[in-house]
Amino acid sequence: MNIIAFSGSPRKNGNTELLLNETVRSIEEAGHSVKTFYLNVMKIKACQDCGACNETGVCIFKDDMFQIYDAIRSADRIILASPIFFFSVTAQAKVMIDRCQSFWCEKYLLKTPIKSSRYGRKGLLLLVGAMEKEIGIQCAEACGQAYFRTISVPEHDTLNFLGIDAKGEILKHPSALKEAYEAGQKLVK
Ligand SMILES: Cc1cc2nc3c(=O)[nH]c(=O)nc-3n(C[C@H](O)[C@H](O)[C@H](O)COP(=O)(O)O)c2cc1C
Questions:
Q1: Of ligand 1's atoms, which has the minimum distance to the CA of residue 131?
Q2: Rg (CA), the chain
Q3: Which of helix, strand or coil describes residue 37?
Q4: pLDDT tens, residue by residue, 122-143
Q5: In this structure, are residues 94 and 88 in contact, taking their beta carbons and an 8 Å threshold?
């Protein structure tokens, strides 16, 4: 099974990465490997809405997004992990998501969606935010859902944790790491 993950937090070893590490650990213990992209250290230009991909389904900007395009195309499982920044995913995650407009063109304009493998394509969205209000999570979840559907991932689970702010605070949550671990197990079952 081909499994990829995106870490959208700029904070190394922060709450998002701690959660993602647990998910990856469970997947690896089930005998799979995971290729993780740390978006904060990648060079990805923001979508310029130039329209080139409308005709071809291919983005004209040759940057680190090209390794991501290939990885998304061949993935059976895709994990997107991000903290909530201003009621959405981080800019690091969003710039990658916006560049998937070429997949949107491929799917909806050129009518050639990414084909599924025998494992199907499934996603997992991991979100963590400081506020207790649900609205931040709801906005990020809507963005995550649009992303997964665009890249032809028809189903995904979402795990979200509210009220988590300080670096490493997720470690004090009574069940978060266990839930992230179990979400990984479920993803590859
Ligand atoms: C620029 C910025 C904007 C933020 N906006 C929100 C927000 O809208 N809602 C929220 O719940 N938390 C918000 N937070 C808090 C982070 O989501 C929270 O600290 C999270 O635990 C960080 O995860 P990390 O350790 O993986 O980076 C914001 C943090 C920053 C730095």
A1: 11
A2: 16
A3: strand
A4: 999 999 999 998 888 999 999 9
A5: yes
The preferred substitution site among 21, 80, 82, 85 for testing ligand 1, maximizing ligand atoms within 8 Å of CB, is 85
Residue from 33, 21, 3, 29 nearest 176 by CA: 21
Task: Compute the distance between CA of residue 115 and CA of residue 146 in angstroms, rounded to an integer.
Answer: 18
Give the distance (Å) from ligand 1 centre to CA of residue 112: 37
For residue 174, what pLDDT is reported?
97
Residue 184 scores a pLDDT above 90: yes
Which atom of ligand 1 is the closest one to the Cα of 169? 21
pLDDT reported for residue 157: 98
Q: How many CB atoms lie within 10 A of CB 148?
A: 23
- Exposed, middle or buried: residue 66 (CB in 10 Å: 0-12, 13-18, 19+)? middle
How confident is the model over 74-122, as pLDDT tens digits?
Answer: 999 999 999 999 999 999 999 999 999 999 999 999 999 999 989 999 9
- Rounded CA-CA distance 128/102 in Å is 28
Q: What residues does 83 pair with on adjacent strands?
A: 128
